[in-house]
């Protein structure tokens, strides 16, 4: 398996599919502790990404992610737009103009995405935000890449599994950042919608490489 | 869900289009990217004022575009902040060279998108100042939350900073007036019913017939806690006490009292709340010098209200009284 621009386009296409399929679920998660718009915004944003990809036909994975970043920033709104936009932009910068991505660079890109989200949103681990999916994902990706036998698929699977576990682990947490923080103790018992959509995005990356 | 809409996905487009038609003498509506500017923008030599946020709070913000208030309003999707690709052109459109003040309600999405737009505008050579509105006393523990939200006080910041810009104040002076209003206003709200976001189709939170939510924001999000329904005076006391204590209002002070409807409560009920709030303030020895009662910053069709108290000084009173001509507020012209 090589991670080239075709993989990147497949990944983003699967992201759009996942957001459309999970639109109602994400709205329901957000309804419980936020304001019921996350599924709608992510669906709208990734549909716009698909249109842009068809128009622009990027030549490298980095270029595809940069286009995604700019589109999400301009179409999603809310906190998710700038946060995901920054994540994809930082990942794109980490990939540079490489035509194919090796395991080490892939892990670097995931770490850069996580760092971008932290820098923009100023949330820490345990605040019940998408950081709780991205930090374990970035760390698992680094560990998988450091293993000499690590493959790009192995890095992606490790990241997706860690993100999914991280998203589930937000359920008992009390939110300290974002819209859910206004609920205080009442935010416990619900999965964070941003962590949930992050896990969907990282799972789509595996699907595109499988 | 019964709503006067054609398609949940075109609610904001069609509503803003209608707003532009209804107030063609006051505003210009740009459709894509979407923003509303004052008809005569940019006004030569004047500091521009731009605000924006999710839709669903009408008349905020587009209803406050015009003489003596905002130069531009940037509507996002329902309850979703607008994006930098809307905020930036709105900012550029109202910049006369004197700089632009962004008035931003303290919600994570609004802050992040306005922050990004401000960086881009500065890169294009426009001086930007940001006034962050965070008047909501319902958020008690700002250390462990995203901080106090910008709610009812936003209307007062927009009116008073708008008057300062209209009289020719500098960029820094307009921002300083905005900050001064923000630091002297506090607000607390209550919901008697939830609202339904058109694309979600179901109410934004669950509330039994005999329950109310105390300490709500303006995006249909639940508040601090649910309590059993009470009468108007009881609810008014619950909202006003924390507002007055947090503001530290003492005898002899002058205030502006703003009772705001959330969209689904009749004016007659808002005046019942106003009546009690005015009594309580008088009992504390303070004087209500100015008042505002009505639906100005709403949450779709939510039933409920918010109470804001602004500590006035002579300058703020003078700026409040200054002429304003917008779709939702008009006096002196």
UniProtKB/TrEMBL annotation, chain A:
<dbReference type="Pfam" id="PF02734">
    <property type="entry name" value="Dak2"/>
</dbReference>
<dbReference type="GO" id="GO:0019563">
    <property type="term" value="P:glycerol catabolic process"/>
</dbReference>
<dbReference type="GO" id="GO:0005829">
    <property type="term" value="C:cytosol"/>
</dbReference>
<keyword id="KW-0808">Transferase</keyword>
<dbReference type="GO" id="GO:0004371">
    <property type="term" value="F:glycerone kinase activity"/>
</dbReference>
<protein>
    <submittedName>
        <fullName>Dihydroxyacetone kinase</fullName>
    </submittedName>
</protein>
<dbReference type="InterPro" id="IPR004007">
    <property type="entry name" value="DhaL_dom"/>
</dbReference>
<dbReference type="InterPro" id="IPR050861">
    <property type="entry name" value="Dihydroxyacetone_Kinase"/>
</dbReference>
<keyword id="KW-0418">Kinase</keyword>
<feature type="domain" description="DhaL">
    <location>
        <begin position="6"/>
        <end position="207"/>
    </location>
</feature>
<dbReference type="InterPro" id="IPR012737">
    <property type="entry name" value="DhaK_L_YcgS"/>
</dbReference>
<dbReference type="InterPro" id="IPR036117">
    <property type="entry name" value="DhaL_dom_sf"/>
</dbReference>
